[in-house]
Amino acid sequence: MIKQDPMKQMLLVVPQRELPETQSVWGTGGWLPPEEREGLDWLALSKLLGWSIAINRWDGSSFQTEFSEGTHWIVLACDSDALKEAHITRLIERLETEPILLVVRAGSSDALSKLTGVRKKMDRIKGRRVTWEGPGPQRFWTCRTPLEGHALECPEESDIWATLEGNPFIVARRFGVGFIATLGFHPSQARDTDGTATALLKQLLIQGVDLPLAWLDYENTVILRMDDPGSAETVHHQIYSQTKLESTEWNQISSELEKRNARLSVGYVAGWVDDGDPDLGNLKVSKLSITRIPGKVYPSPLVVYEKASKNEKELVFDYEDEYNGIQTLRAKGVAEVELHGHTHMHPDSITWAKASDRYSKSSWYRELGKPASVAIASKGKKEHPLTLGLSAFRQYFNVTPTTVICPGEQFTSKVLQHALDLGFSFVGSYYLALRYENHFCWAQHVCAPYLNQPDHAWFDAGLPVVGYFHDFDLKRHGVQWFSHYLKEWEKVGARKWIDYRELAGAISRLFHLTRHSGQIRLTVRNQGAPQLVRPLTLMMRIPGDTTLSHISVSWNDQESLVETLSLGHDLYRITLPGCP
Question: pTM higher than 0.85 for the full model?
Answer without folding.
Answer: yes
